[in-house]
């Protein structure tokens, strides 16, 4: 298996580099493993592609799990964004990565997988990679699970879920991956399942309250690394607390579609189709009474870019646009102010044929 555990403790002594190369040893390869790893751990991951071209030996080191462990141990990991796109006429998903700290803010292609379901998969980042669960293949739901190791950009298959699912949602609590919805779960008793990456096993979760196991689920977030909050297709928020194996029914949203839920510094953010970014306190999602989302102020200039689509058409060309926003919380006025750090196109595509539209399937942050 190529999976990794986020809680795995790197060791300076117990791991040895197992590298094969037909070229005679020279330069760095003559040094002890610890010194090699300590030196290369300081090289930005954005330069690893160039470093891999030096020799087969360099390429092996750059792709090794030991280098990832050393980067984590020494505190040289970097934040990166992994983007999954479907670009017509190719039906297969394609993967790219973006490093916000590089001077050239462009999407860089990474190795994709021909057998990845073309639509409706549930994806979550955990540890050193991305888990792709379920989806549709030839119009039918699948229980397949794939893993993209983002250290080496290699793929592997994992044990299948107990239920075939599409358009499910997921969250990670205490190193385990919780998946909800995307199936008719009442009859099977498997509306939710949990995957243990260490044991490589799936287990069914307790069923949610009656009439809450709606097949369609819209969003999910993890609160304080202790519970998963899910919104089903009826707009009902459900909280699952793994430590207690219990569900709690909360707020029901009937005020319109809110997408792209995220938690940043214990504040929940989402976006509207009109381009506004909203926020609320996590505790409000668990209320049974009416709550009110508030708008992040100062981002009016981004509304046209965010509205309805994550892609913008400029002069016949299609561009994928990305922005970095810093957030300022003003407790006295109960406001959050957004400041645009940068905003620009990170990829330009030829006009899609026959009016087909490219689609962003997922955007996931990783620290590598």
From TrEMBL:
Organism superkingdom: Eukaryota
SUPFAM superfamilies: F-box domain (SSF81383), Kelch motif (SSF117281)
PROSITE patterns linked: FBOX (PS50181)
InterPro entries in the record: F-box-like_dom_sf (IPR036047), F-box/kelch-repeat_ARATH (IPR050354), F-box_dom (IPR001810), Kelch-typ_b-propeller (IPR015915), Kelch_1 (IPR006652), Kelch_FKB95 (IPR057499)
Pfam families linked: F-box, Kelch_FKB95
Domain F-box residues, every copy: 25-73
CDD domains referenced in this protein's UniProt entry, alphabetically: F-box_AtAFR-like
PANTHER family: F-BOX DOMAIN-CONTAINING PROTEIN, F-BOX/KELCH-REPEAT PROTEIN SKIP4
Name of the featured protein: F-box/kelch-repeat protein At4g39560-like
Protein source organism: Raphanus sativus
Gene (UniProt): LOC108839506
């Amino acid at each position: 298996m190529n999976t990794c555990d986020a809680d795995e403790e790197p060791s300076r002594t117990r791991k040895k580099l197992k590298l094969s190369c037909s070229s005679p040893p020279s330069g760095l390869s003559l040094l002890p493993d610890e010194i090699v790893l300590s030196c290369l751990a300081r090289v930005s991951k954005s330069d690893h592609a160039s470093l891999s071209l030096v020799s087969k030996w360099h390429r092996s080191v750059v792709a090794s799990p030991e280098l990832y462990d050393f980067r984590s141990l020494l505190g040289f990991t970097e934040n990166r964004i992994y983007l999954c796109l479907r670009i017509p006429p190719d039906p297969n998903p394609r993967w790219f990565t973006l490093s916000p700290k590089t001077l050239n803010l462009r999407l860089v292609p990474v190795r994709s997988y021909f057998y990845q379901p073309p639509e409706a998969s549930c994806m979550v980042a955990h540890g050193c990679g991305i888990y792709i669960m379920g989806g549709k293949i030839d119009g039918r739901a699948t229980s397949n699970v794939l893993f993209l190791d983002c250290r080496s950009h290699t793929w592997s298959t994992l044990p299948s879920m107990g239920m075939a699912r599409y358009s499910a949602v997921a969250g990670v609590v205490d190193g385990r991956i919780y998946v909800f919805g995307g199936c008719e779960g009442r009859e099977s008793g498997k509306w939710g399942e949990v995957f243990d990456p260490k044991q490589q096993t799936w287990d069914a979760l307790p069923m949610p309250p009656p009439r809450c196991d709606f097949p369609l689920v819209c969003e999910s977030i993890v609160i304080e690394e202790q519970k998963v909050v899910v919104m089903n297709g009826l707009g009902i928020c459900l909280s699952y607390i793994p430590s207690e194996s219990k569900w709690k029914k909360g707020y029901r949203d009937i005020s319109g579609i809110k997408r792209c839920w995220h938690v940043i510094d214990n504040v929940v953010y989402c976006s509207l189709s009109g381009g506004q970014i909203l926020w609320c306190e996590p505790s409000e999602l668990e209320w049974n009474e009416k709550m009110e989302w508030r708008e992040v102020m100062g981002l009016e200039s981004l509304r046209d870019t965010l509205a309805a689509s994550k892609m913008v058409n400029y002069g016949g060309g299609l561009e994928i646009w990305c922005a970095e926003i810093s957030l300022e919380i003003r407790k006295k006025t109960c406001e959050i102010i957004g400041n645009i750090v940068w905003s620009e196109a990170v990829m330009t595509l030829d006009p899609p044929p026959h009016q087909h539209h490219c689609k962003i399937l997922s955007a996931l942050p990783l620290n590598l």
